[in-house]
Amino acid sequence: MDRSPFAIDFAAVAPVRFDVGATIKPPQSDDAKGDHAKHTAGRTFLAGVQRRRMAGIKRATELLDHLPEEGESLHCVLLGYFDLLNMLLAFLERIGQPCDVLRVATLAASKRNVTELATLIDTGAVRRLDLLVSDFMRQHDGDIYEEAMSELVGKRGQRVAAARSHCKLVTIAFSDGRRFVFEGSANLRTSRNAEQVALSRDAGLYAFYDGWLESMVTTHAQSDESHDSPKS
Fold first, then answer.
1. CA-to-CA dists, residue 15 to 55, 206, 208, 218, angstroms
2. Over the stretch 12-32, which tens digit does the pLDDT of each residue have?
3. What domains are defined for the chain?
4. pLDDT higher at 204 or 228
5. Closest among 209, 181, 216, 212 to 197, alpha carbons compared
6. CB under 8 Å to 184, separation ≥6 — which residues?
7. How far is 127 from 98, CA to CA, in rounded Å?
8. How much is the pTM?
9. What confidence tens digit (pLDDT) does each residue in 52-66 have?
């Protein structure tokens, strides 16, 4: 069968090494704490991560071997091996420079996601973060929401909002003018299901989604002292 000239042979992608020099820990749930990212010379890696987590980031890195040029999109079907934040971490590693503004809309997140986002701020890999989660998550995963408020808003001065939103979006702005968007079915945390994700480099698409997302976070953002009474 003839192959499309634009098809990527992922089997030909060379294996990626992750020499973090850390002791491998037993598998943990996606809500477990303990993963710590480090940022060195403009590159990001995770240390103290168990084998399953590292395998997920490796798979995500292989998918992102070919990044889209301006006006192009990379479409992927994820088979439940890793979560969207794995893909975002691999993307930032691939770009190799800090992100000026990162905005994320997700139905749900895990405690591990909160830790990783906080570490991106601490290391300077991300300079400004907005996180929009669903009101469903605020009501049903209150402990995770409380941790996001404490770690991202209270300790780091970023913005977290909860609203009636089912959107899964990531908008990414770099100081050199590049603008990217992740969109699809995947939440930040793993669902162990097949998910579809598109990564686009398109200034117009970025402006469309980022304008909406910034407006939602501005409308629904809560302070660490008042988040028990969210805006309707």
1. 11, 31, 36, 42
2. 444 433 332 333 233 344 444
3. 31-220 (3.30.870.10)
4. 204
5. 181
6. 84, 168, 195, 196, 197, 198
7. 7
8. 0.73
9. 555 556 667 777 878
